[in-house]
Design a protein that fits this description.
Blueprint lengths: L3 E8 L3 E10 L2 E11 L3 E3 L2 E3 L2 H19 L5 E6 L4 E4 L20 H8 L2 H8 L8 H11 L1 H6 L2 E4 H10 L4 E2 H4 L5 E2 L4 E2 L1 H6 L10 E2 L4 E4 L2 H7 L5 E3 L5 H7 L8 E6 L3 E7 L6 H6 L2 E4 L5 E7 L3 H10 L8 H10 L20 H11 L10 H27 L5 E5 L6 H11 L3 E3 L4 H13 L6 H11 L3 E3 L4 H16 L2
Helix pairs in contact: 2-4, 10-17, 13-15, 15-16
Bound molecules: beta-L-fructofuranose.
The site of beta-L-fructofuranose (LFR) has 12 residues, from α10.
Pfam families: FGGY_C (PF02782), FGGY_N (PF00370)
Family: Belongs to the FGGY kinase family.
Protein name: Rhamnulokinase
């Protein structure tokens, strides 16, 4: 086959990237063209998304593509984090600057949910993990605080769809992002009307969904001309980044669990069915829409966010400090001196993460750590992450009747060899790490499927296996880790 060139824009919580994938002779080669910040902007105490700067960065990425590769491009597609959205009026105008899910507006929505619907009923209707970042929580908060915006809204548009809309003029509703909104019923495969009713949300914002691989439209002619591109289609990948990443998990399939490791760590099982049962409800596990009609049974862990925030604070005194240096220092620190429940709400969006960790130690009667004890703090974060992975995977496997024989860690976090090893030790299964660029790769492969190049996940994963180096980590010191895990179960997770 002649080489196909497909451009992915991958929006992660720390940065966004334009990555071109060249598909030729059963191999995928990635070229990073452009990188830009995506963090939220604080205005009048609100955490907002700078969506117009995202649009400008996309144009900058397109121009860089043309400069390097010329005017011919086969497809463009965007993936982003989930949950965040804009609201459009009947003329397609954005009614307000979209919020970031880290904004504190949702702090009290838990109580409203409990009062108006009850968490158990909400879980039965949606099969989604209770998280204050969910689209439902954000809509409830908007309705309470900024009612006119909701009253005037004709369309709910997720971040990735909004960016596609800027590029094509087409208003779409991503199936993969919508599936994790808590507005969708995965068993009925339809909007969760009971949820709209319980919270008084307007049904007119429900749109027709666009599925992975479907065409959004053509890149707007004026944009194409400005960037120097020939006409090019915009194709929906799995717009939800976690689903995009799981597409490119080479070990995915029977017996292989997937951990998408980044700002959030998402524990996933790739299933051919939706699981909404008692055990899934107890641990609050999500049924997250995936590609080729499959379901990602998934659970969010606070992830590397805690470390990312600490790093920003450590950088004030150690400007050059990098993730590899932090991991190296942690590796040399004494093991198991302290513990954290990495999902504690103290860590969601504190003014200072090092301070939040100190508060956690104080509330659990542990000795404090100084701001400069980077190695010890990082070690405790890594150990706590690995413990939480084990705990979630154990429960998820039980709820889904899945036997985990191997774990595939993908995404930027899989470059952390130390954390990979700890995870293998406590999970007691081999860990295969890679690719780090799973999200962009998965985005590109689903666009390629939309162009008719692939017909199944198996075909896609074979190309991924042939294209990226994968590293293996075998469990070590399993008895020591098992003992410590039992401590966590009793003292930290309480079950
Ligand atoms: C990962 C992710 C998760 C989602 C969280 C917030 O980047 O998309 O899947 O739960 O971000 O949207």
């Amino acid at each position: 086959m002649t080489a196909k060139r497909i451009l992915a824009f991958d929006f992660g919580a720390e940065s966004g990237r334009a990555i071109m994938g060249e598909l030729e002779s059963g191999k995928l080669r990635l070229h990073e063209l452009h990188r830009f910040p995506t963090g939220f902007v604080e205005v009048n105490g609100k955490c907002l998304l700078n969506v117009l700067s995202f649009y400008e960065e996309i144009l900058a990425g397109l121009k860089k593509y043309v400069r390097e590769f010329g005017p011919v491009l086969d497809s463009i597609g965007i993936d982003t984090w989930g949950c965040d959205f804009g609201l459009l009026d009947g003329q397609g105008n954005l009614l307000a600057v979209p919020y970031s899910y880290r904004d504190s507006k949702t702090n009290e929505t838990d109580k409203i949910i409990q009062k108006k619907m009850g968490k158990d009923r909400l879980y039965s209707e949606t099969g989604i993990q209770m998280l204050q970042i969910n689209t439902l929580n954000q809509l409830i908060a908007l309705k309470e605080r900024e009612r006119t915006v909701v009253d005037h809204a004709s369309h709910l548009i997720y971040l990735g769809d909004l960016l596609h809309y800027f590029l094509t003029g087409q208003i779409t509703m991503s199936y993969t992002v919508n599936s994790i909104s808590q507005l969708y019923n995965p068993v009925k495969q339809a909007w969760a009307d009971e949820v709209f009713e319980a919270f008084g949300l307007p049904r007119r914002i429900q749109g027709d969904m666009i599925y992975p691989g479907q065409r959004v439209g053509m890149l707007d002619g004026q944009i194409a001309a400005e960037c120097g591109l020939d006409p090019v289609p915009v194709t929906a990948p799995c717009i939800h980044d976690t689903a995009s990443a799981a597409v490119a998990a080479p070990g995915g399939g029977e017996g292989a669990a997937i951990l998408s490791s980044g700002t959030w760590s998402i524990a996933c099982l790739d299933l051919d069915r939706v699981v909404v049962n008692e055990k899934a409800r107890e641990l609050s596990i999500s049924n997250s829409g995936f590609a080729f009609g499959r379901n990602l049974f998934a659970k969010n862990v606070m992830g590397l966010w805690v470390l990312q925030c600490c790093k920003r604070e450590w950088q004030k005194k150690n400007p050059g400090i990098s993730y590899p240096e932090i991991a190296e220092a942690a590796e040399k620190a004494q093991p198991f001196t302290r513990w954290l429940d990495i999902d504690d709400e103290l860590f969601f969006n504190p003014d200072t993460m090092c301070g939040a960790i100190r508060s956690y130690f104080a509330k659990t009667g542990q000795k404090p750590l100084g701001e400069d004890q980077i190695a010890e703090t990082a070690r405790t974060i890594y150990e706590s992450l690995a413990m939480k992975y084990r705990r979630n995977f154990d429960k998820m496997a039980e709820a889904a009747g899945f036997e985990i024989r191997e774990l595939n860690i993908i995404g930027g976090g899989c470059n952390n060899r130390f954390l990979n090893q700890l995870t293998a030790n406590v999970m007691k299964v081999p860990v295969m790490a890679g690719p780090g660029e799973a999200t962009a790769a998965g985005n590109i492969m689903i666009q390629a499927a939309g162009l008719g190049l692939f017909g199944s996940l198996d075909e896609i994963r074979e190309v991924i296996r042939n294209s990226f180096p994968i590293e293996y980590f075998l469990p070590e010191d399993v008895d020591v880790w098992e003992k410590r895990y039992q401590f966590y179960r009793e003292r930290v997770f309480h079950g």
